[in-house]
Amino acid sequence: MKIIKVTVVYALPKIQYICQVDIALGSTVKDAILESNLLNLTNDVSFHHNRIGIYNKTVHLKFKIKDGDRIEIYRNLTIDPKEWRRNNVFLSKKLKKIY
User: Fold this and answer.
1) Whole-angstrom Cα distance, residue 96 to residue 92?
2) What are the Cα distances from residue 73, in Å, to 10, 44, 51?
3) Per-residue burial over 64-95, b = 16 or more CB atoms within 10 Å of its CB, e = otherwise
4) Which residues contact 20 (CB under 8 A, 6 or more apart)?
5) CATH (domain of 53)
6) How far, rounded to the nearest angstrom, does the alpha carbon of residue 29 sit from its chain's CA centroid?
7) What pLDDT is stored for residue 97 in this prediction?
8) 11 lies in which domain range?
9) How many structural domains does the chain have?
10) What distance in Å separates the CA atoms of residue 29 and residue 6, rounded to the nearest whole number?
11) How far is CA 51 from CA 1, 57, 77, in A?
C-alpha cells in the first residue's frame, strides 16, 4: 500500500492548525481530516457546518486526495460581505462629514 503526504489546515484569527498527515493512497478528504485529529483539537470544526476545499477549490468529503494536497477547512462567515461593505460605506460617509 502506497503512503501519501497531505496537509490539513484550519485557521482562526489568532491561531492556525496545520497538520501533516501520512495516509494511504486512495483515501478521501474525510479520512485525512479524521487522521489529522483536528476535530478533537477544536470545537469549531464540524463536517456538517464547515466547507472543505483543496487549494481554495471546494470539494466533497468523499473526494479522493492526491500526494501533496492541502486540505483546507473553511470557517463560517461572521458577517455577510454585502452588509460589511454597506456598513463600511456608511461609516466612511459619516467620517467625511465630521472632518
Assistant:
1) 6
2) 5, 10, 6
3) ebeeebebbbeeeeeeeeeeeeeeeeeeeeee
4) 5, 6, 7
5) 3.10.20.30
6) 12
7) 58
8) 3-98
9) 1
10) 10
11) 30, 10, 11
- Asked whether 16 and 10 are in contact (CB, 8 A), the reply is yes
pLDDT at 23: 97
Looking up cell 461572521 gives 78
Q: Are 58 and 52 in contact (CB under 8 A)?
A: yes
Per-residue pLDDT of the chain (99 residues; tens, 9 = 90+): 899 999 999 988 888 999 999 999 999 999 999 999 988 887 777 777 889 999 999 999 999 999 999 999 998 777 777 887 877 776 676 666 555
One-letter identity of residue 72: E
Specify the DSSP element, H or E, that contains 17. Answer: strand 16-24
Strand partners, 7: 20, 70
**Stated pTM of the model:** 0.75
Cβ count within 10 A of residue 36: 24
Rounded to 5 degrees, φ, ψ at 62 are -85, 0
